[in-house]
Design goal:
Elements: E1 4-8, H1 12-23, E2 27-32, E3 43-46, H2 48-56, H3 60-66, E4 68-70, E5 72-76, E6 82-87, H4 88-95, E7 99-103, H5 104-113, E8 120-125, E9 137-140, E10 142-148, E11 169-172, E12 174-177, H6 184-189, E13 197-207, E14 218-222, E15 226-232, E16 238-245, H7 255-263, H8 270-275, E17 283-289, E18 298-299, E19 302-304, H9 307-310, H10 319-336, H11 340-368, H12 375-387, H13 391-401
Parallel strand pairs: 1-2, 1-12, 2-8, 5-14, 12-19
Antiparallel strand pairs: 3-7, 4-7, 5-6, 8-10, 9-11, 13-16, 13-17, 14-15, 15-16, 18-19
Helix pairs in contact: 1-5, 1-10, 2-3, 2-10, 4-13, 10-11
The structure holds flavin-adenine dinucleotide.
Residues 8-14, 31-34, 44-45, 50, 125-127, 178-180, 184, 203, 205, 241, 285, 287, 306-308, 314, 317-321, 323 line the site of flavin-adenine dinucleotide (FAD).
């Protein structure tokens, strides 16, 4: 079964979905509201489930080659003592791979390289879809500044490579809403849903300007209501992130200086990571999540994927991995058919329970980790972690990472 699809959003989820749909024999147009694909972002870690999904999509080898395996590391407290160590080699024995770390920009580039450039339309915002015909979805492309278009499958306006797409309306057999945590299409499909909620945490992060001499591949350090972590990359640079309990919307005139004040007396290499960072490289976002689970991931011929479907807190490093799983499962379901409706029903049945349970687990991990602030609760948690058997960390990761994609026939 083939057809034409419009994917809304060229994030990790949307690009992966487009790759999968093309493998399943579909014609795909990806509509992205950003006028330029600027390749920003810090770093990302990918667990075995995300890597296996990438394998199913044919890009796993390229991502592994560009990523750095995370063999050594674990969780510490601000004075540097260890709460738990993570054994990447043990994880590799269990799952065939340790966790890997990669700059987001590189992951985006590798996903885009697996798509013909003409299927990407930038500067095209989709805020609504017309579902009045049950067999075709009409997708008006709004024009954000300076958009350019690739040839769009099923376009009623017949737009061609390099032309503008203002006011174009695409028609497709399927729309994949991969428009992120603030999804406009989710709000249209589920008007009674409350939408995303602020998690109570804000995150500042960056990639160092230069390589940093690190004793481990990755670390998390938990203080009271605060976390600092790093992931080392293949080129010796590292991404670091600082997560803080905070009201939403708090911003700093000099974010790096604010972080030096907050984390400057935490253990090595934290101050060195901050010193190796340019002030303008620091990104600051409040973390939102879908606390109320969606009742369905599909409505008619529109299907939700990635953060649009199940935005979760980053405490398990699973948000993008779940988006990649979505993409692999959607492609396999559509390839198997026999109808779009039956494929979307299978996608919903497979993806909703799993991704929503990972989202619950991520929230819980945050409550017991970064968000915990009461000194007594922090002391009890730290003692429990120090006493836990060394396999406990690996077992926790296996619970979510040991997933295998369906065959894409
Ligand atoms: C601090 C932090 C750390 C994280 N670390 C990890 C990690 O280590 N591992 C992991 O697996 N996950 C991690 N995640 C989660 C991961 O980043 C997300 O789950 C993932 O990026 C979601 O991808 P997406 O494509 O669904 O959404 P997005 O990346 O948000 O992409 C949505 C795209 O849609 C576009 N768009 C939005 N609205 C419209 C519209 N109306 N019309 C057209 N285009 C539109 C946007 O411009 C964007 O390009 C982390 C998240 C955070 C916040």
């Amino acid at each position: 079964m083939g057809g034409s699809a419009v994917v809304v959003g060229a994030g990790i989820g949307g690009l992966a979905a487009a790759i999968g749909l093309r493998l399943a024999g579909w014609e795909v147009t990806v509509a992205e509201r950003a006028p330029v694909l600027a390749d920003v972002g810090a770093g990302i870690s990918l667990h075995a489930n995300g890597l296996r999904a990438l394998d199913a999509l044919g890009v796993g080898a390229a991502v592994r080659a560009a990523a750095r395996p995370q063999y050594t590391g674990g969780t510490r407290v601000p004075d540097g003592s260890w709460l738990a160590r993570m054994d990447g080699a043990a994880l590799e024995r269990e799952l065939g791979t340790p966790i890997v770390g990669i700059p987001r920009a590189v992951l985006h580039q590798l996903l885009r390289a697996a798509l013909p450039p003409e299927c990407l339309v930038v500067g095209a915002e989709v805020t609504t879809v017309d579902r009045s015909d049950p067999r075709r979805v009409r997708v008006p492309l709004g024009n954000t500044a300076g958009n350019t278009a690739a040839k769009a499958a099923g376009s009623t306006a017949g737009n061609t490579l390099g032309s503008t797409v203002a006011n174009t309306v695409l028609e497709a057999d399927l729309v994949v809403a991969a428009d992120g945590v603030g999804s406009r299409l989710r709000a249209q499909l589920f008007p009674g849903h409350p939408g995303p909620a602020y998690s109570g945490s804000t995150v500042l992060r960056a990639i160092t300007e230069r390589p940093v001499d690190l004793a481990t591949d990755f670390e998390l350090t938990w203080g009271r209501g605060a976390e600092f972590g790093h992931i080392a990359f293949a080129d010796g640079r590292a991404e670091w992130h600082a997560v803080l309990n905070s009201p939403p919307g708090v911003r700093h005139a000099d974010a790096l200086e604010a972080l030096r004040r907050r984390f400057g007396d935490w253990h090595d290499p934290i101050p060195r990571l901050l010193t190796a960072t340019r002030p303008e490289a620091v990104l600051h976002h409040d973390i939102h999540e879908l606390v109320t689970p969606l009742p369905a991931f599909a409505a008619g011929r529109v299907v939700l994927l990635g953060d649009a479907a199940h935005a979760m807190t980053p405490n398990l490093g699973q948000g993008a991995c779940q988006a990649l799983e979505d993409a692999a499962v959607l492609a396999a379901a559509l390839a198997a058919g026999p109808t779009v409706e039956s494929a979307l029903a299978r996608y919903d049945a497979e993806r909703r329970p799993r991704s929503q349970s990972v989202a619950r687990a991520a929230r819980q991990a945050g409550r017991m980790g970064q968000r915990l602030a009461h000194p007594l609760a922090v002391a009890v948690r730290n003692t429990a972690l120090r006493l836990a058997p060394s396999r406990a960390t690996v077992r926790t990761i296996l619970r979510h990472a040991d997933w295998t994609p369906p065959a894409l026939s």
